[in-house]
């Protein structure tokens, strides 16, 4: 099985590194990483499809905005997701969807309270046809 993300420990925060064969796969895997840090997402039922979109000036800004949209769903709408699909992506815009359900505290136990996605040590690279992103979260 190909590794899609790993958790990165940091003195004050937590982060992750995600991978993908293309920007679309990278953004979907980054979304999975964020969900897995915030809640127990392995027991999510894919009952509903939620539209997700973000804009930015480059892939780095776009990724931060995309992940902050997911945080809005998680905290503002009380929705947890377990699968993501990117329908369109460019350095300025991403749109897609996530499959999930209303958050049930008994089933989707909180792990960490993620306040936001930071630009601290943010990096997106493409090397030998494989994309990677390093992201740190404010917890």
Characterization of this structure:
This protein has 139 residues and is α+β, with helices and mostly antiparallel strands. The chain is 24% helix and 42% strand. Helix 1 packs parallel to helix 2. It starts with a strand and ends with a strand. The mean pLDDT is 93.
Q: Give a short account of the largest sheet.
A: 5 strands, antiparallel
Described by the principal axes of the CA atoms, the overall outline is globular
Structurally, how many domains make up the residues? 1
> Which parts are unreliable, with pLDDT below 50 for 5 consecutive residues or more?
none
Task: Give the number of helices.
Answer: 2
Secondary-structure arrangement, i.e. CATH architecture: 3-Layer(bab) Sandwich
Strand-residue proportion: 35-45%
Mean pLDDT: 93
